[in-house]
Amino acid sequence: MTLEIAVAAALFVGVMAYALFGGADFGSGFFDLTAGGPESGAEMRSLVDHSIGPVWEANHVWLIFCLVTWWTGFPTTFAAVTTTLFVPLVLALAGIVLRGAAFAFRKYAPSVGQARLYGATFAGSSLITPFFLGTVAGGIASGRVPADGYGDRWSSWLNPTSIFGGCIAVGTCAFLAGVFLCADAERTGHPGLVHSLRVRTLSIGILTGLLVFVALVPLQNDAPTLADGLKHRAAPLIVVSGLAGLATLALLWLHRFGIARVAALLAVATVIAGWGVGQYPWLLVDEVKIDDAGGAHATLVGLLVAVGCAAVLVLPPLVGLYWFTQTEKAPAHDARAGG
Amino acid sequence: MGVWALVAEPAGLLPAREQMALSLGWHIILAAFGVAFPAMIFVVHRHGIRGDETALRLAKRWSKVAAVLFAIGAVSGTVLSFEMGLLWPGLMGGFGDVLGLPFAFEGLSFFTEAIFLGIYLYGWDRLPPRWHLAALVPMMAAGVFGTYCVIAVNTWMNMPTGFTLTGDGEVTDVQPWHVLFNSRALLQFAHMWLGAYMLVGFVVAAVYATGILRGRRDDLHRIGLMVPFGFASVAAILQPIVGHVLGMALGTIQPAKLAAFELDVTTENPAPLHIGGILVDGEPRWYLSIPRWGSFIARGSFHKPVRGLESFPADELPPVNTTHLAFQGMIGIGTALALAVVVYWFARWRGRDLLAHRWALCGMVLAGPLAVLALECGWVATEVGRQPWTVYGILRTVDAAGDNPGLWWVFSGVAVVYLGMTIGAVVVIRSMTRRWRAGEEDLPSPYGPAPEEVAR
């Protein structure tokens, strides 16, 4: 394994972690948005607030990790992407800013009117961000980012692969969020929410699963290199993803929410891994290979040192935070309004 | 220079500059809170778990304010990460692997900060008190380390090192650790770190001084004023020393910036100190001149020359007036704040509490916005003073910028979003303080049903 591949692998782990954990945070915006009016939606919104409140900032840092590793490890491709996919990146960024700020403001909003304004901003922008980041992935995967940058500012993300990528991103985020919220709702004693969340998550799961497999058809023409990789090297991952997706649906059906979380994470992780393995060895498909994109060797070594430090210093407390928030039982939750 | 600039500027240059100034100038205030506020919360919280109920209540309130401020700090910091590529592709494409490593380590400290913030905010009444308090310690450490890393990159932009530029502009022999541990980074870090403590300390103290002026003279306001003021006092007294030491090497590292700071048009030995004044048609006007002191302040000796603006090619000079006024604004405010805290503590040592006087409280209120202004001036001085370079002597800002025609739209959007975020933060935090004064303590979210229903 070359140094470049090792750094690219670390970068891709960051992408996966952001897609899974950041994605679940974003996806909860969908359930917040569709929770209904102020009266009927209050319980759901409280649950969303309680579920992602302590973790969203930590999950968000995966994005920073990806950006920094990318520009440090593969600087010219980073500039190529930012100059080409400028529009969707700006729109995704707008979503990130509005989501984070509005979420924090809503928690301490003084009136229902303000809470609704912030809540709508939070929920709406939670859908915008994954969509546009998905179009960015589609633009790269379909070979629309030239090595020297400044590719077409519009067709680079307004194309079949990007649009499917955006929709799949929104769908997988909502699906992940739904499964996690089901488990949270059951654990903290909200039977009414469990019912509506379960039905909606099942439908989103079926839709998103179909979308993933339907997308393989237009990809043949629109992103031939990726499609070829998906049919061969990444085929096992796509099969695993399909199976894990079906298993998640079955577990949701059977009310086995705790274990469904694992299956859902696996289903989404394998879709994303499929994309990565499918476009390997290209960093910018059909333009730049990973091995040719690396920055200075000393810097790549330094990055791996930083990644090693992260594994030792950051992962244990991160796991601790998840354990701390995911094992809480009902009584403390009922005290939410008071605590 | 005007004509030259018009010909050579890419479409992305001016809006990119404006946007970077706005988003960095906005974020730096929140970043300062991320760096300095946990330490102040720690002191108050520790006091609280040792039995002072008022201090405990204050720590809880501060942690809620921190939740709001850190959230908008996190997203506005993300904006900067995106902007590195969106606005400055020439910098990132060419030098990403030279300057990137400190950012990777900064990412580690951001992670640490976000994780322990989550644990701390969620941990009230859920963790044993000592463990809960201890969650602030990694946050404080991350603040120090993260600041150092970011400042190391800025130091590198002022004094590039860790690579070789070949004749045809190729970057070779990259040594990223030299960027992370470059010799000047520690000093520049100390300057920013103290600046952060000054900003947060004076701003928070100003909030409670306002309360006392309005007649709320209770224990809560006293602690809320004295703890941040204590931190700010130490920082304000140390800052002129660190700033002076930092500035002394400027004459050799960035002589054009120094000439603009000091408004020195001609090279003089010894150079006078110009206080105030602006450059009109190349001539300095309306300044106060103190003989010899320019040389002493800039070079640490009454017998060394300071290079004048005239000795540089016109296309290598920063915008002189902005740089000079920002620099002297920072120095003036910093000196005034340092003198003010010395007066306060001297009087207190002599047994007089100046807080009994309205004028002293008014001064404390004023110190908050002044500290913000000083920090902003400092960043304007160092960033504008480095122009026309992004990487001093290596990469011009013109070449760092992109060629995107839509940037004015993006800038307008950013300005609107930041205005909205500012209004949102002010409205929400003011509403929090209003409810606290009304006797509510926990502030439940008003999701829909009447608050009393939710709160049972």
Automatic annotation (TrEMBL), chain A:
The chain crosses the membrane at residues 6-31, 85-105, 117-143, 163-185, 197-217, 237-255, 262-280, 300-324. It is a multi-pass membrane protein. Its main location: membrane. Keywords: Cell membrane, Membrane, Transmembrane, Transmembrane helix. It is found in: Cell membrane. The keyword Membrane applies. One of its GO terms (biological process) is aerobic electron transport chain. The keyword Membrane applies. GO terms for molecular function: electron transfer activity; oxidoreductase activity, acting on diphenols and related substances as donors, oxygen as acceptor. It comes from the Bacteria. Pfam families: Cyt_bd_oxida_II (PF02322). One of its GO terms (cellular component) is cytochrome complex. Belongs to the cytochrome ubiquinol oxidase subunit 2 family. This is Cytochrome d ubiquinol oxidase subunit II. It comes from Nocardioides terrae.
Automatic annotation (TrEMBL), chain B:
One of its GO terms (cellular component) is cytochrome complex. The keyword Nucleotide-binding does not apply. It is found in: Cell membrane. GO terms for biological process: aerobic electron transport chain. The keyword DNA repair does not apply. Its main location: membrane. One of its GO terms (molecular function) is metal ion binding. The chain crosses the membrane at residues 24-44, 65-88, 100-121, 133-157, 190-211, 223-242, 325-347, 359-381, 407-429. It is a multi-pass membrane protein. Pfam families: Cyt_bd_oxida_I. Keywords: Cell membrane, Electron transport, Heme, Iron, Membrane, Metal-binding, Transmembrane, Transmembrane helix, Transport. InterPro entries: Cyt-d_ubiquinol_oxidase_su_1. Coiled coil: none annotated. It comes from the Bacteria. PANTHER family: CYTOCHROME BD MENAQUINOL OXIDASE SUBUNIT I-RELATED (PTHR30365:SF14), CYTOCHROME D UBIQUINOL OXIDASE (PTHR30365). Belongs to the cytochrome ubiquinol oxidase subunit 1 family. This is Cytochrome bd-I ubiquinol oxidase subunit 1 apoprotein.
